[in-house]
Design brief:
Elements lengths: L9 E8 L11 E13 L3 H5 L8 E7 L9 E4 L2 E11 L4 E9 L3
Antiparallel strand pairs: 1-2, 1-4, 2-3, 3-6, 4-5, 5-6
């Protein structure tokens, strides 16, 4: 599926681990890039109504292929931070599809 004009309509910030983090320290993340993407949410509303704890947002993010993204990256969108669970690169279509889960900070 090739991208069409207007398909990428939401901004996502890619955050990567800060270099120099050593064992035992809290991992720090810095903004690496802000890109246009298409985002779809798969929030478990049924689980939320049933009181399940695992009811945070999961997102599918599709963007143009970007070498900055790796498995350790985090994504920021609309004030929420997401940890990458899996991603697939399609070199022919020049896209990357990411599945990520919301990180809830206590």
């Amino acid at each position: 599926m090739a991208y069409q004009s207007g398909f990428l309509h939401q901004r996502v910030t890619i955050k990567n681990k800060t270099d120099g983090t050593t064992f035992g320290e809290t991992t720090a993340y810095t903004d690496a890039a802000t890109v246009w993407a298409n985002i779809s949410f798969t929030k478990g509303m049924k689980a939320l109504h049933e009181g399940a704890l695992d009811a945070y947002d999961t997102v599918i993010v599709r963007m143009r292929y970007n070498t900055i993204v790796n498995r350790d990256s985090h994504l920021m969108h609309d004030g929420k931070e997401y940890q990458i669970q899996s991603f697939h690169r399609d070199y022919q279509e020049n896209i990357i599809q990411i599945t990520a889960t919301e990180i809830v900070k206590h």
